[in-house]
Amino acid sequence: xxxxxxxxxxxxxxxxxxxxxxxxxxxxxxxxxxxxxxxxxxxxxxxxxxxxxxxxxxxxxxxxxxxxxxxxxxxxxxxxxxxxxxxxxxxxxxxxxxxxxxxxxxxxxxxxxxxxxxxxxxxxxxxxxxxxxxxxxxxxxxxxxxxxxxxxxxxxxxxxxxxxxxxxxxxxxxxxxxxxxxxxxxxxxxxxxxxxxxxxxxxxxxxxxxxxxxxxxxxxxxxxxxxxxxxxxxxxxxxxxxxxxxxxxxxxxxxxxxxxxxxxxxxxxxxxxxxxxxxxxxxxxxxxxxxxxxxxxxxxxxxxxxxxxxxxxxxxxxxxxxxxxxxxxxxxxxxxxxxxxxxxxxxxxxxxxxxxxxxxxxxxxxxxxxxxxxxxxxxxxxxxxxxxxxxxxxxxxxxxxxxxxxxxxxxxxxxxxxxxxxxxxxxxxxxxxxxxxxxxxxxxxxxxxxxxxxxxxxxxxxxxxxxxxxxxxxxxxxxxxxxxxxxxxxxxxxxxxxxxx
Length: 501
What we know:
The protein is mainly β. The protein is 0% helix and 51% strand. It contains no helices and 45 strands. It is elongated, with a radius of gyration of 31 Å.
């Protein structure tokens, strides 16, 4: 029996000088003297404030001559509901309505303009919307500790931008919307182990070209509405993995859509422990790399996807893995990988020996050119109506879970290459038909669960040219319907068929 294959695919004009004759000048009796000028300090930026009808507006005045005046660093501090004061951290001057305190504030708008700006928000209690217009430059919006908002909207121009919502309990009653231009963008929701982040509406993040990061930390992360992420070209890391505390929670109540442009992308749901609860997840990765894999991983103690889970990847090396102790999709699971790269692309469904995996709807896996592997592992694997279609290359499909059940039909189609289908488990049960179609090449089919091997319908195996083999083992092997093996023999690569009771 061949040895178990588990996760084998593992493995950011020079100026001219001209000589001139000196000009002769008459001698003067005046002795030149030096005048000492008064000291000069580079002026800090100026921000104008207005307050009317509950709206506090802070506008940085762009200096088109001295860019140093465009680097603002200010703090907005709350002192109860609707009560705010502004503080300059770099010598900035507030004109107009001044720095406050402002009472009865319902909405806040920052117009930061040009430059690398830092806006810190501490202990805000705002019933309405905070809008931050960052403008071009490397901008940072630092929110925490302990804030409450109605809505938060952030729009930045080109530059490397950071939004951090952390250091305590931070609540947004409605929506958090982030729109960054070209550059490396970072969104950090939580950073301490005890941080709790709640977004009562939708979370929407849109980034231009650049390397983009979303990282969730703390002990609790909850988006009541939809989560939508659209990253441009350049690669990305999306980690929804609050893993602090005793029982960390990651929850998204609405649909999840993650779309990445070209680049190597990494997406992870869940940390080492806790629970992940998601709804209708759609992931679309662009063209990746021939040498580095784009990854989608599910960890944590328990992961539940209510509805469907869909993953589509462009050309390049790809990896999909389920590493949680319990994983359930109530609807359909579909994975579509494009052409591979220098190494294999892999799909690992199931993890530790005690893990359980359940797919309530259909399971459809497709991969184009390249060496691809699909491995079912863990203690219990329950899937429905499985269809696996892999292109040219050396492809592997393995059922290594202790107890494997396919309710409905199991269909496997491989193009040319050395293809392997193997069962190394305690039990393997297909309630419907089992069909394997291999192209030209050396194809091996081994059904050898130690205790029971059962096909409730018919078993059909079709191989192209090559040295192909089919064998069974285990305590029992039963096919309720017809069993056929249609092969095209090659005189130098004989086909062998063997069965064992």
